[in-house]
Amino acid sequence: MNMKINALMREDQGKGASRRLRREEKVPAIVYGSGKDPSAITLNIHEITHLLENDEAFTSVLDLEIDKKTEPVIIKDLQRHPAKNCITHVDLLRIDMKQTIITNIPLIFIGEEENEAIRLGAILNQFINSVEVSCLPADMPNGIDVDISGLAIDEHISLTGISMPEGVTLIALTHGDIETHDQSVVAVQEPKLMAEEVEEEIVDAEGEEGEEGEEGAEGEEGGGNKTDDDKAGGDKAGGDSGSN
Q1: How far apart, in whole angstroms, are the C-alpha atoms of residue 161 and residue 178?
Q2: Among candidates 73, 7, 85, 15, which has minimal Cα distance to 40?
Q3: What is the pLDDT of residues 178-213, one digit of tens each?
Q4: Cα–Cα distance between 198 and 107 in angstroms, integer?
Q5: Which of 89-103, 165-179, 225-239 has the lowest mean pLDDT?
Q6: What are phi and psi of 51, to 5 degrees?
Q7: Which domains does the chain have, with CATH numbers?
Q8: 139: closest CA among 173, 101, 104, 170?
Q9: Chain-centre distance of CA 113, in angstroms?
Q10: Mind giving me the DSSP string for 91-131?
Q11: Per-residue confidence (pLDDT) for residue 230, from 0 to 100
Q12: Which end of the chain is flanked by fewer CB atoms within 10 Å, N or C?
């Protein structure tokens, strides 16, 4: 399914211009890449918000139309207002449909309802939720399925255990030492084991805080016994994010 973005060129730039655009229900954006100069553009807030309600928009080639000219792009970056959660800026990357691109694709874990161990109370522990891949734009998947229906307790799936779509390569496994980069993706564990791991993390964190507190106390003790020379030495020594 083709997804289209309508845009207009813009001359005014800077924070003041961006604020004016947002009051007019427009979103400042920029499009760059493919050896062309970056172009400052504006998008309709309602149109882009509606488009991004579809999660597939983030992993799809979009048709960007400017002055009746269309070019393929992908969403490279997105900024939202921290309180209102509305879109405040969009970065679009021009792409060549004949050249490979590198992008992040979400993992979709399927088969949880059919997993017997999970039905009996085991916990599914997801270590990563997306992977970096290389592929032609036409081969870019919206998501990569990871089937966990057959995982038993203490079993896991690593990167090499993922069935990749045709034409899509995992960047992590293109390095020379595959074993070093073959990290775990998901595992099925006993609830007790999960609880122990969390408790160990809490204890370790508290221990580190205690050590830092002791060091701080020692520092304060030493600092309270400054000599006059020390004091004299101290007195002498004292002598809208975005691309817009």
Answers
A1: 12
A2: 7
A3: 888 899 999 999 987 555 555 665 656 666 555 555
A4: 24
A5: 225-239
A6: -60, -45
A7: 3-94 (2.40.240.10), 101-192 (2.170.120.20)
A8: 101
A9: 27
A10: EEEE--TTS-EEEEEEEEEE-TTT-HHHHTT-EEEES-SEE
A11: 43
A12: N
CB of 130 within 8 A of CB of 139?
no
- Give the three-state DSSP class for 28: strand
**What is the number of other CB atoms lying within 10 angstroms of the CB of residue 140?**
21
Q: Which tens digit of pLDDT belongs to each residue from 75-133?
A: 999 999 888 888 889 999 999 999 999 999 999 999 999 999 999 999 999 999 999 99
Return the closest-CA partner of residue 56 out of 99, 3, 16, 100: 3
Pairing of strands 69-80, 62-66: antiparallel
Report the C-alpha gap between 18 and 240 in whole angstroms. Answer: 9
Distance CA 124, CA 153 (A): 9
The full length of the chain comes to 244
DSSP conformational letter for 83: T
Q: Are 89 and 27 in contact, with CB atoms under 8 Å apart? A: yes
User: Which residues, in sequence order, are CB contacts of 17 under 8 Å at separation 6+?
Assistant: 10, 28, 244
Burial of 105 (0-12, 13-18, 19+ CB in 10 A): buried
Residue 188 near residue 122, CB atoms below 8 Å: yes
